[in-house]
Amino acid sequence: LERNLDPALHPFAVEREYARALNAAKLEKLFAKPFVAAMSGHLDGIYCLRRHPTDIKTFLSGSFDGGVRVWNVANRQTKWSLTAHDACVRGVVVCSDNESFLTCSDDKTVKRWRLETSDDNDTSTRAKDSVLSSWSSQSAFTDIDVQRASSKFVTSGSTVELWDLNRSDSLSSYDW
User: Fold this and answer.
1) Is the pLDDT of residue 50 over 60?
2) How many C-beta atoms lie closer than 10 Å to residue 119's C-beta?
3) How far apart are CA 103 and CA 35, in angstroms?
4) 3-state DSSP assignment of residue 158
5) How far is CA 6 from CA 1, 11, 13, 52, in A?
6) For residues 69 and 61, is the Cβ–Cβ distance under 8 A?
């Protein structure tokens, strides 16, 4: 293999080498960070992750297989898990009472679950009958959020709907 090293035939050699050196330095910085831990347990990929608003070591995650897990980040363990929906869990949020949480899914339902955040290392699986309430819509949901000072929550999808925890129908619906 013969190479022509004449600099007149390679006017961008310096720029090319500079770009390569810069990329190598960036990659070196990227891979230099140590891996701390992995928290495994979901059967499929995680779609949504939300932290507890008052308990800094509690996180909730929802996955593509319909599962929801409550994590103790300090111990890097699952506190408990459940199969919440028949489709992908698109959103999870802790209610304003801090004792329950909501999940929304592609199966067109929002479900309210009891949130038990005890400090013991109980890794049991909660049963399906722990659903406190459920709401349905005409279309799939893509996310959910709550208003911290009241019992209202909002869902997004093909429409944005405002709900109340004490009512079975949406308060209002917005689409465009």
Assistant:
1) yes
2) 11
3) 30
4) coil
5) 16, 9, 11, 64
6) yes
